């Protein structure tokens, strides 16, 4: 029975290791990326073959409109400079291309490129290295983005905007905020004016992209709004390099609806498992480590009417140059002659901050993917947030969280540790019985079971504390890997990034030492081979932990240290009880 208990404990340890490896490999991390065949070399224009709705196919940049009638508008806009529009807020520096009105570059000012760099993290870009852009416009019967001559070139007021250009605007909640509006205008020869406006709010990442159609022509205008994310197959720039391991999370597309909150779509499956869903309140996104870009369809507002949410079609596809495109398109918008209509959508590109994402769309906050243990991970993250609010340091927050978790589990784990302590106390008696009965294994088993019954010992109880820790350990791994709040977060001294491995390997060595001390408090296996395996387990786990996030190793050290204290106290209590009982038996 004792041998089976040892095997169960060893098995549980290796299950932890195996599940952690799966956390890298299954759906996460090192999927081989297809090399980019035709890297973009244009920095000022995301150009390409952008036909209208009549000839659009799944391989083109602009999505195919529902209405395939003949394009009726003509381009009457005078050529303007192709200089990009620069927009700088307190959160990012962003560039918009007047041709098509696409966002072609975003630098996140509050997030550095890496922990050793002062350069901002580049979220979107279009250059020789990488193509990752956010496109939007109007397609369909009269949509200017369906023009056979190419996408529209908007007239612009100026090419540079900052928060100094923002105006105070009162929101629906009654609060006043500074909103920066960047308008662009496109006019057709028959009197239709399209005003495309990007609205930025100070202190917020979401951008509201509004299309206002002013129909001064004598004909009905009809079109659809689209918003899409276009990305090549390059690697995730947000993933962490951890020595021989590359730790990263899911890279690919994602979408959600009020019915199906969160769904992932690998780049390789953009055609085979093509997204084709229609929903009100849905969203589409590109997900990477710590960051996400997403389009959330908004409202359609006709003249003298309140805005109404619209049912958007969510789709995915591959372009001819193997670009990955995930998009939404609105239903057809009819604007009678002499009337005005507006259609908008919200664009988000930035860190995966759950509190912000959950207010944008149902399920968008689940792009912070905690895996199948997300209920536990969510509680752990909330605990970390609470302690961070008190101490202002994520490292100390991990320590305080560990203490809290151990206190909560103390009564449950104490029973298991008490069983292990009893096993430790009766170990000499077990050894004596083994020597006495020698090869008579049946007699030895009978005497051993009688001893367990007499001492009220359950040999499997030692597995319980470890089984309790397994889901917490795995859930915390995902919290550290997915929570952007802990990205490059320092603790003290040499630990300047809790989400990366310890550069000096001090924490893994301390973890191995605490594990060795903890095992010395456990009953030692009677079998010599098992004893040797248990002795080298601290060494194996030390090597294993060398490449894990420092925050996770810190948790394990604190957990081991508290376990040593708890197990030491229980061992003394059990030993004291046994001595009292032996003294009472001798007196009788």
UniProtKB/TrEMBL annotation:
From the UniProt entry, list the residue stretches annotated as the region Disordered: 54-76
The UniProt keywords, alphabetically, are:
Cell membrane, Chaperone, Membrane, Protein transport, Transmembrane, Transmembrane helix, Transport
- Location of the protein in the cell: Cell inner membrane; Cell membrane
Query: What superkingdom heads the lineage?
Result: Bacteria
Occurrences of domain Membrane insertase YidC/Oxa/ALB C-terminal (ranges):
394-572
Describe the location of the Membrane insertase YidC N-terminal domain by residue ranges: 85-381
What is the recorded membrane topology of this protein? Multi-pass membrane protein
The similarity annotation says:
Belongs to the OXA1/ALB3/YidC family. Type 1 subfamily.
Name of the molecule in the record: Membrane protein insertase YidC
Organism expressing this protein natively: Acinetobacter amyesii
Which gene carries the instructions for this protein? yidC
């Amino acid at each position: 029975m004792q041998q089976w208990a040892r095997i169960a404990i060893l098995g549980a340890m290796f299950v932890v290791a195996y599940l952690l490896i799966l956390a890298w490999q299954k759906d996460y991390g090192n999927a081989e990326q297809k090399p980019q065949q035709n890297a973009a070399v244009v920095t000022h224009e995301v150009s390409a073959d952008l036909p209208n709705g009549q000839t659009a196919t799944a391989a083109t940049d602009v999505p195919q409109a529902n209405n395939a009638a003949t394009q009726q508008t003509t381009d009457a806009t005078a050529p303007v400079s192709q200089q990009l529009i620069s927009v700088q807020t307190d959160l990012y520096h962003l560039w918009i291309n007047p041709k098509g009105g696409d966002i072609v570059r975003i630098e996140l000012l509050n997030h550095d490129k890496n922990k050793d760099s002062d350069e901002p993290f580049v979220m979107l870009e279009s250059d020789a290295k990488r193509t990752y852009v956010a496109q939007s416009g109007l397609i369909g019967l009269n949509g200017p983005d369906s023009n056979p001559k190419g996408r529209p070139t908007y007239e612009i007021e100026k090419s540079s905007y900052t928060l100094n250009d923002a105006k105070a605007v009162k929101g629906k909640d009654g609060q006043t905020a500074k909103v920066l509006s960047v308008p662009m205008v496109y006019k057709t020869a028959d009197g239709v004016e399209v005003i495309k406006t990007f609205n930025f709010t100070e202190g917020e990442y979401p951008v509201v992209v509004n299309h206002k159609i002013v129909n001064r022509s004598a004909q009905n205008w009809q079109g659809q709004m689209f918003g899409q994310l276009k990305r090549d197959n390059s690697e995730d720039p947000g993933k962490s390099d951890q020595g021989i391991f590359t730790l990263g999370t899911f890279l690919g597309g994602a979408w959600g609806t009020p019915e199906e909150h969160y769904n992932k779509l690998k780049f390789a499956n953009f055609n085979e498992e093509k997204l084709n869903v229609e929903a009100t309140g849905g969203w589409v996104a590109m997900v990477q480590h710590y960051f996400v870009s997403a389009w959330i369809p908004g409202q359609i507002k006709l003249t003298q009417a309140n805005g109404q949410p619209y049912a958007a079609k969510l789709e995915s596809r591959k372009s001819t140059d193997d670009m990955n495109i995930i998009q939404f398109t609105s239903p057809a918008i009819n604007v009678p002659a002499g009337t005005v209509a507006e259609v908008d959508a919200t664009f988000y590109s930035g860190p995966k901050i759950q509190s912000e994402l959950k207010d944008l769309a149902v399920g968008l906050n689940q792009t912070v993917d905690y895996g199948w243990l997300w209920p536990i991970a969510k509680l752990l993250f909330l605990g970390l947030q609470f302690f961070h609010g008190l101490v202002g340091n994520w490292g100390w927050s991990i320590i305080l969280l560990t203490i809290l978790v151990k206190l909560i589990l103390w009564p449950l784990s104490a029973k298991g540790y008490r069983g292990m302590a009893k096993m430790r106390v009766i170990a000499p008696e077990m050894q004596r019985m083994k020597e006495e009965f020698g090869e008579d294994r049946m007699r030895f088993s009978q005497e051993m079971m009688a001893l367990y019954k007499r001492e009220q010992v359950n040999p499997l109880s030692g597995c319980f504390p470890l089984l309790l820790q397994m889901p917490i350990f795995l859930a915390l791994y995902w919290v550290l890997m997915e929570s952007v709040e802990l990205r490059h977060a320092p603790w003290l001294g040499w630990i300047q990034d809790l989400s990366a491995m310890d550069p000096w390997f001090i924490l893994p060595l301390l973890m191995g030492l605490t594990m060795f001390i903890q095992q010395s408090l456990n009953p030692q296996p009677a079998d010599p081979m098992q004893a040797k395996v248990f002795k080298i387990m601290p060494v194996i786990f030390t090597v294993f932990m060398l490449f894990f996030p420092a925050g996770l190793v810190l948790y394990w050290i604190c957990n081991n240290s508290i376990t040593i204290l708890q197990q030491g106290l229980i061992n003394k209590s059990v030993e004291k009880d046994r001595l009292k009982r032996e003294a009472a038996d001798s007196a009788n």
